[in-house]
From TrEMBL:
The keyword Signal applies. It comes from the Bacteria. The keyword Transcription regulation does not apply. Belongs to the UPF0065 (bug) family. Residues 1-26 form the signal peptide. InterPro entries: BUG, Bug_dom1. This is ABC transporter substrate-binding protein. Keywords: Signal. It comes from Achromobacter insolitus.
Amino acid sequence: MLDRTRLLAFFLAAATTACLPPSATAQEPASDKVVRLVVGYAAGGAADAVARAYAEQLQTAGYANVIVENRPGASGQLGFDVVKRAKADGLTLYLGSSPMFVIFPLTYKKLAYDPDHDLRPVALVADVPTAAVTGSAQPYGGMAEYVKWAKQTRAKATLGLATQGSPGQLGTLEMGSQNGLEVVPVLYRGAAPMLVDVAGGEVSMGWDAVASMLPLYNAGKVKFLGVAGTRRLPTLPDVPTLLEQGFPQYQHAASWYGVYAPAATPDAVIAKLEQAFLAAGKRPALVQKLQAGGFLVNPQDAQAAKRRIGVERAHWAPIVKAAGIAFDE
């Protein structure tokens, strides 16, 4: 059994080192503004890495001093609530994952927020390839082998999650139902503690962003069962998609991150924020850093983010309804 405390410390150190700005070379911002970029997940995860990469570029460009503030809990909802209640002056922003705006409205019986009216989009900042992962010592090496192992050993098919109601969770529940496998979701307060338990064999499989998994994967602590989507990732060319392994439930299980502001934020302020984030997302240093970390960077404006929310919600609505998925909280 791996030492959980030491493994968590390793994970956080590796992930943080990968995304911290180079303070010795960063240009001091011309602006004296201080912007809080609130992340609803723990430090060391995928959302945190994206937030810090953008914060570095916004500061280097002289837009503002940007402080990344981690508020983990309730699958990102605690951080959302902080920004919802903030002054609508463009100085408190939320970096959130697409499930909060696409899937949660379909899967939760009651939400503590209104995804369409409490915040408004600023920009879509990164696409997030996702994957299924397991501990490197586990006897199975792909999703088909995992299903076979769980059935033969009658082991509990536990699914570690940092976000309840993610596309990966929906796809896995659908996969389990179609293969006679009961999947038991286990919710964590962030990707880091979840992946530590996956590496240590406490849960048999985890689902999250590829970027969150790379530090432990590169250290040989975890291995991929497969990636979501229809094509293999440039950063993981030897890892097959779950689709090519015969699991079509994961075609649309990728995610993305957007930046949002309080709903009452004036249009002129949103326009300036949008311009700043789009410019930051095109800087080679940011693109190279995030692509190396497993992200796809194709920043889009506020209207594009709003349209994508509508399209994806329409895709998942009939699937959620047919599966009868409903979370109390």
